[in-house]
Amino acid sequence: MARLALALGIALAAAAVGGSVYFVSPAGDDMHDGLSPAPGRVLRTVQAGVDRLQPGDTLLLCAGVYRETVVFPRSGTAEAPIAVSSADPGDPAVVSGCDPVQGWTLEDAEKGIWRAAMPWSLGVGRNQVFADGQVMIEARHPNTPDPGLEMYVADLSPLWPTFAELSIPEPATAPGRITGKLLKGFPENHWKGACYYGVHYQGWAAQTGIVEASGDGGIRVGDRTRTWWFGPAYGGTYKPEEGRGMLVGHRNALDRPGEWHWEENALVLIPRRPGRPTTVEAKARHLAFDLSHREHIHLRGLKIAASSLKLEDSAHCTVEGCHLTHIAHYTRHYSIGQIEEGRDTIRSGETGIFVGGHDNAFLNCSVRFSAGAGFYLRGYHHTIHN
What we know:
Elements: H1 2-16, E1 21-24, H2 46-52, E2 58-61, E3 65-67, E4 70-71, E5 82-86, E6 94-96, E7 98-101, E8 105-108, E9 113-117, E10 129-131, E11 134-135, E12 137-138, E13 140-141, E14 164-165, E15 177-179, E16 195-199, E17 207-215, E18 218-222, E19 244-248, E20 259-263, E21 266-269, E22 280-283, E23 287-290, E24 297-300, E25 303-305, E26 308-311, E27 318-320, E28 323-328, E29 353-355, E30 361-363, E31 366-370, E32 375-377, E33 383-385
């Protein structure tokens, strides 16, 4: 009752300045008019609510999870902005990039591996899985870093790489050949198809490739990040080469609780606790909100999970008091910020929140966990504060 009173209070405040107020709830129906939070009136999706908004209108999101990418069909004005807010600041609505994964069957009782249908994938290195609200690890080898190769800062996300000592022994003649004790003892092509993620020579940035062949003690990596690991092949003089890397995204690396692997339209995983997996969801879309080419849009008091925002050529848009987690995820990339050939995946928001145009603001927000940037800023007069 208190939450309903709060929502109605916000509605009355908005109405007092001349705008209409619409409501959405996961229990609603998009055939309703949305002009009340009462059953029989409330809408179901954020997009259906946004589609109705005119300058000066407000959309209130009742508590719950909304699994969609919201695109604004029109702008507000300086005198009459369009606003989207949580109906109850004490129980913020969640806009998520994930969809549920259900229907689990036990595939391997000895190893504790479960399987469920997942007929979507965002591409190599770009899927992400959560269980009981906690992020899971894509199957990788090694599971823990070699001594001395741990990350320099404690309490980081478990998604940080687990490096082992690996080297490129012939960078000039065989830049894709990688060797090391991590790769010893495996049969031929045991790691074929895995994604290699490594840092070599000058180590300006981690780079990736796909394992084309593997043997006892070595792999051959193709389809590599452009400007392949610098070094003598590009005029560098760093000798001996002291590289580090890991393998990710291969079924043969699925060997401990909390790991997952996607294959043939199915998700296989080992739960952190024995028994059937519960509340599993996987990333299905990159964006929560697309405010591109819009002006005077305000987002307030929302939680945004496993998805990002895009504000290309936007102006005077404000995101305030919002909490964003796991906004971008990838382990495969071709160049800085480019995770797919032929597309600008910086401007798309897939590698971090993209803010272009002018006079946009992020105020009193939190942004946690991104494989890429937190923000890419272009244009002018933007504000990111507190």
